[in-house]
Design brief:
2 helices, about 25% helix, globular, alpha+beta, two-stranded parallel sheet, about 80 residues, 2 strands
Length: about 80
C-alpha cells in the first residue's frame, strides 16, 4: 500500500445521508468505493446518482466497482 493511503469500511444502516457524508468528511475520505452489486437503495439519497452528486459537493470522489463486492447469495 502506498505511503499515507488507508482503506476504511463503512455502512449506512440507520443514518441519514447527511450524517453518512459528514462522517466521511470528518475522516478526510477522498474516495468512496461502492462495492454493492446494485448501487441502489430504498433509502433516500443512497442510490448511485444522488449519492455521487452529494459526495461531489463536499469534494469526495465516488466510484462503483461491483466486481470488488461480495457475490450475491454468498454470506460470510
Amino acid at each position: 500500500m502506498a505511503h499515507g493511503v488507508s482503506l476504511t469500511t463503512i455502512g449506512y444502516e440507520g443514518v441519514s445521508v447527511e450524517a453518512f457524508i459528514g462522517t466521511l468528511a470528518r475522516a478526510r475520505v477522498t474516495l468512496l468505493l461502492d462495492v454493492r452489486e446494485l448501487p441502489s437503495s430504498r433509502r433516500k439519497g443512497f442510490s448511485k446518482t444522488p449519492l455521487s452528486e452529494a459526495l461531489r459537493e463536499v469534494g469526495i470522489e465516488y466510484r462503483h466497482e461491483r466486481a470488488l463486492g461480495t457475490a450475491q447469495g454468498y454470506t460470510v
